[in-house]
Target: phosphoenolpyruvate carboxykinase (GTP)
Amino acid sequence: MALSIRCATQTYICRRLTHSMRTRQQKNCVIANTIRCLSVVHGNINTLAPKVKKFVEENAALFQPDHIHICDGTEAEHTQLLSYMHKQGILKPLTKYENCWLSVTDPADVARVESKTVISTTEKRDSVPTPKEGVTGTLGRWLSPDDMEKAYQERLPGCMKEPVINNWPCNPEKTIIAHIPDRNEILSYGSGYGGNSLLGKKCFALRLGSILAKKEGWLAEHMLILGITNPKGQKKYIAAAFPSACGKTNLAMMNPTLPGYKMECVGDDIAWMRFDDEGRLRAINPEAGFFGVAPGTSMSTNPNAMLTIRKNTIFTNVAETSDGGFFWEGLEKETPNDVTITSWLGDKNWKKESGKPAAHPNSRFCTPASQCPIIDPDWESPKGVPIEAILFGGRRPQGVPLVYEAFNWQHGVFIGATMRSEATAAAEHKGKVVMHDPFAMRPFFGYNAGQYMAHWLKIGRTPNAKLPKIYHVNWFRKNTEGKFIWPGFGENSRVLDWIFRRVDGEDCARKTPIGLVPQNDALNLDGLKESVDMDELFRLPTDFWQNEVNEIKTYFDNQLPNDLPDEIASELNALKERVAKM
Ligand code: OXD
Ligand code: MN
Model:
């Protein structure tokens, strides 16, 4: 195996410098010997910054790779790496498109493994809230420094010497995705899939990022960023948090059905936000590309994503067509009839009737954001784009209306803290249970979720801040027959139009016990093709909301009995009182 070092600005890897009880002298000697034997096949180790050089030397001594490759980030290197992986059988070209590749992983390595994702700090409470006695905490996992050291010792010495025995190197039994905030360090071992191994994404930009954000007074969030221009040519940006696989990428690249509107995408997954000197909350997308869920993506659901991925894209665990194309559930109408389909599991004559999906439900495309036809002109602006509304949302089949607005920032933080959604395929959860997912960050908190809520409340007290308005949206409410009530996708522009007008100060909302909803007729439904039962979409069933209040109370009592900020507890009481009067 080779040790590759990537020194790009958004990739952040470093490891603790001591790994054993050896004396410094012995250790230096081991390193010196190792370095003499190492073959650096690309780049010059002496040109690295001293800290990086030391990192490489120490870890090369520990991991014992065959070669060291120091990445330079050039196109030539990129091509060379692709061709190397092609020769190794890790990638194969999808010849129907330009520079597109397919990789099929070991079936045991297909999603983020939350059960093996840990934060290691001296004090447990810095990482995770203390649950009620007898209750298992679900807001992150902590590993003691001693256990962390053991985990290192069990896995790292000589780990790059092991032969790769299949086309997908992984070690599911020993997988660990560890974060050591005190050392700004990530250890990802045993998985090559998505968020487990694209370390700049969930590990750095969210988990370590949220810790840096708390220290420095900003926000690192699991949010898309979208620019909205209305028919008058006025532009506003919003950020929106949804749990994984709830349609963030679709919303981020939406084609609005409402005439005269234009949407532009800044990012589809992560937002880093801070106030500028004028008190405006400015957001940047710290990622270079999109790592989107493939199934369900099609020219009818997300044409802009489909146009983005036709070149320079790596697909994982999708199915392949006999004409060299990709296939997944949702592309049936767009796939020629005369092709055969090879499923992600290698069934060469896959048929729908097999009852098994052709593509893994968490199969993905990894594609450059710059190729998106509606990429925002300011998507790489270092000062970021000004955010005027923040949306929280999830998959709520029952009881939760299409949209409601928070009464104020504190109520908005409560709405974020009480987000719930049906589980998805992005992680290892099974079934369609409705899970609590505060701020859509449950798998990504870098520190105690109670302190995270307190940080959001503190952000709301920033002097001279022009605080964005906060909303909750739900595209997924179902009727008694189990059908979605709202058509979603491009029609969601109607909800964004209402939000836009609210942010502009229009008096088009009415008060309900849970928040402000559109006044009758305030949602622009002109030209909506199908008839929508608006009463059902906005109905607030008393028994549902009483139950919701009880569920939230039980959740907080179980998970955050000592860590919940008082303000959030008092928001829950206030909701309870309002619901009691419904
Ligand atoms: C993702 C996720 O991959 O949230 O973005 O799981
Ligand atoms: Mn995500």
